[in-house]
């Protein structure tokens, strides 16, 4: 059974803290993603990685960075957490299906509900 | 500016009846569309998709209809079951992108199926 695992289900941090959200997938997928889900806004892409050490900014990268040192692991970093980063964070992965092909079928983790106080 | 819009935040339907969830898009470059379902405390899971060369795709109780001229798609669930109660996200991408990076999600519709 394919699996995307996020290290924490709930997290409470203080403003200004450095926060690490970890995600591991066991499907040998090339692509990994970090989204945040907010009421009324749906899922918004923060960062995307298509290979080890490769990353691309998504739609809302400000205040975030990412790290992908190993294929199976993709970390989201909040350098200095702020209250407006309180949200549900979802990690996802998908396989690379070749140039010109499409694969929008993402496999999601269960999410991390982050509260920044 | 939301390119994929789900204007109904919530929908309640009686068990056994049809559920119709709607989605509108504004970007004419979108030509591949997906629905994801999300239960509380779980991540979204892929439900069904349709490419713009079709106007209908069916999978069991789930059917997606695409009206390209109206830039509108809908998800029909027949018959609805209590286990279908979840948040449904519509998503779209340009098929030529070759990358899930281009996927744009709507804001979701909470479906509640009443027993």
Could you walk me through the main structural features you see in this protein, from its secondary elements to its overall organization?
- The complex is a heterodimer of chains A (117) and B (115).
- Chain A contains no helices and eleven strands.
- Chain A has 117 residues and is mainly beta.
- In chain A, strands 2, 4, 5, 6, 9, 10 and 11 form a seven-stranded mixed beta sheet that branches. In chain A, strands 1-3-8-7 form a four-stranded antiparallel beta sheet, with no helix packed on it.
- The relative contact order of chain A is 0.32.
- Chain B is built from no helices and eleven strands.
- Chain B has strands at 4-5, 10-14, 19-25, 32-38, 45-51, 56-59, 62-67, 72-77, 86-93, 104-105, 109-114.
- In chain B, strands 2, 4, 5, 9, 10 and 11 form a six-stranded mixed beta sheet that branches. In chain B, strands 1-3-8-7-6 form a five-stranded antiparallel beta sheet, with no helix packed on it.
- Chain A binds chain B through residues 4, 9, 31, 33, 35, 40-45, 48, 50, 56, 58, 90, 92, 94, 98-111, and chain B through 2, 4, 6, 9, 32, 34, 36, 41-46, 49, 89, 91, 93, 95-101, 103, 105-108.
């Amino acid at each position: 059974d394919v699996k995307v695992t996020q290290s924490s289900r709930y997290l409470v941090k203080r403003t200004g803290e450095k926060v690490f959200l970890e995600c591991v997938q066991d499907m040998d997928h090339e692509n990994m993603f970090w989204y945040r889900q907010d009421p009324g806004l749906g899922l918004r892409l923060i960062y995307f990685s298509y290979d080890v050490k490769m990353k691309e900014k998504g739609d809302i990268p400000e205040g975030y960075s990412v790290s992908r040192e190993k294929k199976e692991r993709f970390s989201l970093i909040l350098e200095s957490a702020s209250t407006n980063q309180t949200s549900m964070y979802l990690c996802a992965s998908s396989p690379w299906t070749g140039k010109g092909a499409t694969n929008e079928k993402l496999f999601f983790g269960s999410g991390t509900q982050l509260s920044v106080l | 500016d939301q390119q994929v819009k789900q204007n109904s935040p919530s929908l309640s339907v009686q068990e056994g009846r049809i559920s119709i969830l709607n989605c509108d898009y504004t970007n004419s470059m979108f030509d591949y569309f997906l629905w994801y379902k999300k239960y509380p405390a779980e991540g979204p899971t892929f439900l069904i998709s349709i490419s713009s060369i079709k106007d209908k795709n069916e999978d069991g109780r789930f059917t997606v209809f695409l009206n390209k001229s109206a830039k509108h798609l809908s998800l029909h669930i027949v018959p609805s079951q209590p286990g279908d109660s979840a948040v449904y996200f519509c998503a779209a991408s340009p098929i030529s992108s070759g990358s899930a990076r281009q996927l744009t999600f709507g804001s979701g519709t909470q479906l509640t199926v009443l027993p």
